[in-house]
Design a protein that fits this description.
The structure is a single chain. With 353 residues, the chain is mainly α. Helix content is 71%, strand content 3%. Strands 1-2 form a two-stranded antiparallel sheet. A two-stranded antiparallel ribbon has the order 3-4. The longest helix is centred in the N-terminal third of the chain and has 27 residues, at 26-52.
């Protein structure tokens, strides 16, 4: 089973790598780039909010910081268009991460609802600063980024696709490590009962802050890549109030606190949003359709797609075991060594022993 799963993941990765070669239409690759961006941003958001249980609604601040940092560096240092701005993307992410250390140190002293309010407040403070620090951000006029003139036609989106894919793969690798490490178990313990986790010896403060900073780093790099992709930024677009709503919806839809959930949520929602925007942007109906679709999915799958599928698979396995004819061997049951048929049995699946 493990071999099949690994092979499936490798095939999926290969498909994602060759996707621009198979579908070179700029309209398709544009949607693919935005989907990868939101998949990476949602994965980054999930590393903190999904695993710790602290729902952050201010990550748009780090997205905007990454975007403005790259734009300012390109203008001040006269960076030409091409591949060079991509080398500054990690720097922009580090600037966002550095800011998150300060914000996290303040916000994570409180819990839950108060934490959410503080993150939202800091987001709007940064948006306001982007409007008013005209000497740095050019105010409402915005900032332009270098245009890679050598890239044209079907090729223009390709570099952005692979850079964003690289950020996504790094985010997935970090998420996987967190989910399967002792550090991640500490975050999950905080999510379940922070006071109890503290009593068990989990260093709740450093654990939350480090996850918060890692999350901001990833989102900041996505923001920088986005800014270079769209070529010009403004305070309401770089510091977009709907950004956190979008990534939270994607994480909740796919499955909060899972590795694949944010990826699935972004894969389902971002192309849908792009399509509805294209078809109904003139009358605004796309917002109604998008919202209604999401509500229907939430009503049918309140825990998210991945957790719901796991739960139903577990029920199916349990029902199959109950229907097992008496005397027939069940591969999911093992007899304790040396105790024969009268021994107690232990299920190998479903319970961590």
């Amino acid at each position: 089973m493990k071999i099949i799963k690994t092979a499936g993941l490798l095939v999926l990765l290969l498909f994602v790598i060759v996707f621009p070669m198979l579908f070179s239409n700029p309209a398709v690759t544009t949607i693919a780039v935005f989907t990868l961006m939101f998949a990476a941003a949602t994965t980054g958001w999930n590393i903190f909010s999904g695993y710790s249980g602290y729902i952050a609604l201010g990550h748009g601040a780090y997205f905007g910081l990454g975007a403005y940092t790259l734009a300012i560096m390109c203008q001040r240092w006269n960076i030409p268009g091409g591949y060079l701005p991509f080398l500054l993307v990690p720097v922009a992410g580090l600037v966002a991460a550095a800011f998150s250390v300060v914000l996290g140190w303040i916000a994570l002293r409180v819990r839950r609802h108060t934490f959410v309010v503080i993150t939202i407040a800091m987001f709007f403070i940064l948006q306001l600063l982007a409007y008013n620090l005209k000497g740095l951000t050019n105010g409402s006029t915005g900032l332009g980024l270098p245009i890679p003139t050598d890239w044209s036609g079907d090729f223009f989106n390709i570099p952005f696709y692979y850079v964003t894919l690289a950020i996504l793969l790094v985010a997935i690798a970090i998420s996987w490590w967190v989910r399967n490490s002792k550090y991640g178990l500490g975050l999950l313990a905080i999510r379940d009962d922070e006071d109890r986790a503290l009593g068990l010896g989990v260093k709740t403060g450093p654990s939350k802050l480090s996850a918060f900073v890692i999350s901001a780093l990833i989102v900041g790099m996505v923001g920088a890549t986005w800014a270079y992709f769209v070529e010009s930024i403004y305070p309401p677009t770089a510091f977009d109030a709907t950004f956190d709503v979008a990534v939270a919806l994607m994480a909740f839809l796919g499955g909060l606190g899972t590795i694949a959930g944010p990826l699935l949520g972004a894969l389902l929602l971002e192309p849908t949003q792009q399509y509805f925007t294209l078809q109904f942007s003139q009358n605004g109906y796309y917002l109604v359709i998008y919202g209604a679709l999401f509500l229907v999915i939430l009503l049918l799958l309140p825990q998210g797609i991945i957790p719901t599928l796991r739960m139903r698979w577990g029920k199916y396995q349990a029902n199959r075991h109950q229907r097992q004819p008496e005397g027939e061997d069940d591969p999911t049951i093992s007899t304790l060594p040396g105790q024969g048929d009268s021994a107690s049995v232990t299920r190998k699946e479903g319970i961590n022993l």
